[in-house]
Amino acid sequence: MKYQSTRNKGITASAAEAILNGLAPDGGLYVLPDLKKIRVDYDCLLKKDIYGMASELLALLLPSFDRKETERIVRRSFEGKFETEDITPTVSVGEETVLELFSGPTAAFKDVALSVLPNLMSEARKKCGFSDGLFILTATSGDTGKAAMEGFRDVPGTNIAVFYPKDGVSDVQRAQMATQEGKNVHVFAVNGNFDDAQREVKRIFEKYSGKGPAAGVRLSSANSINVGRLAPQTVYYFKAYADLVKRSIIALGEKVDFCVPTGNFGNILAGFLAREMGLPVGRLVCASNANNVLTDFITSGRYDRNRPFYKTLSPSMDILVSSNLERLLFCLGAGEETVARLMRELSEKGAFDAPRDITEKMHAVFSCAWCSDGDTVETIGKIWRRHKYLCDTHTAVAFHAAEEYKKQYPGHGHVVVLSTASPFKFPAAALEGLGVNASGTGTELMRKLSEETGLPVPRSLAGVGLLPERHLSVISKEEMESCVLRTAERIASGR
Ligand SMILES: *Cc1c(COP(=O)(O)O)cnc(C)c1O
User: Is the pTM of this model over 0.85?
Assistant: First the structure.
């Protein structure tokens, strides 16, 4: 089974090639055209532990790899990397179940997939007989960059450059990136917002996808446009479902709704893939912050990024161009030509209207709601007071959306809220939610938050203030390409 570009069915690739390329050469995203044919025996799958589930799902979604290979990859990716023995625990909070995805090395959900991706890439390189060095370019709204660098640091044959919006990440996130260790990591703060950085990374990709930025160096991507990231993200949807059955919160086969704090539409798309593969998922609730371009799209079918960009308390979702939406359009049945046309309209006019039938199909699965910064802070406080559960700002956006959703849909199923970051990553907002006045550095605020709540600072974040800051480059978005070329030259010459 081959992957193809969302924009052209003539452009195909094996899963291994798709992982190495990141983006298809025509700028489209790689998709499996016959995804619906992959039906999992979820009853059997749910009896396995997360390692077994992951091995099975990766082998199904990335058919270049057989079960033996995925088992090895999964073990190497997960073992010893997470702070909790259960990599993705579920917790009951009031009526909801929270799926906690932040126990990895950088305390954000992206760790789950970015622990796996470098190992997939290493194996894919061998499989494709590929001797060029891989140069990973990543635009980040804060969490991807750090998680990707942790995953790729000192992985032979790879280098990684991360571009983050200079004033668009929390102090803890900035410090995490500035202190990153590893000989093959390169970090740049960009004067601009995430969309600027992401657009520029995409442009550089398209420009150098054929010839490479230097001799013997090939570009690839760790963003959620990479199928090697999307596939591992399906795993925790199955795992959460299994937990609910085991705890008798639902009966086997009963539909569960997932509420997902969303930016680039990667996490929630993995939920959609799980649903397509047969997991009993009812509805998927797309939760946005004030950058509510997706809420408007799901409601009306019109995507329009011509609107003010807000810096919010949930910065990892401050995104107006949601890359993975292109995959959703394809998966809902918009043909290659339609997808290509809509994406052209998006890049030329900043807006497009989905065909009526696609919007209707979307309405059959997706709900949406958005949450202001005021409501985010209030939700953190409310959940703490009611349930003694501390959540981060992104998770609070999802909690808020879950409440709205339950009002919109009285016939809803059991709701699982995906928790995508540790509250200690965004301590200022968490303290504000608790009604505590505090100022100081990220490290001081983490300590304060720990004192107020009695919760420990995650191990992965506790060290951040102690490490030297090694990466201090600030560049304009116009300089990104020359930074890439310069770094590629250094990689090529082995310096
Ligand atoms: C990246 C991120 C999101 C958004 O995930 P997408 O896959 O881009 O939709 C939400 N919360 C946190 C904490 C993140 O790091």
Answer: yes
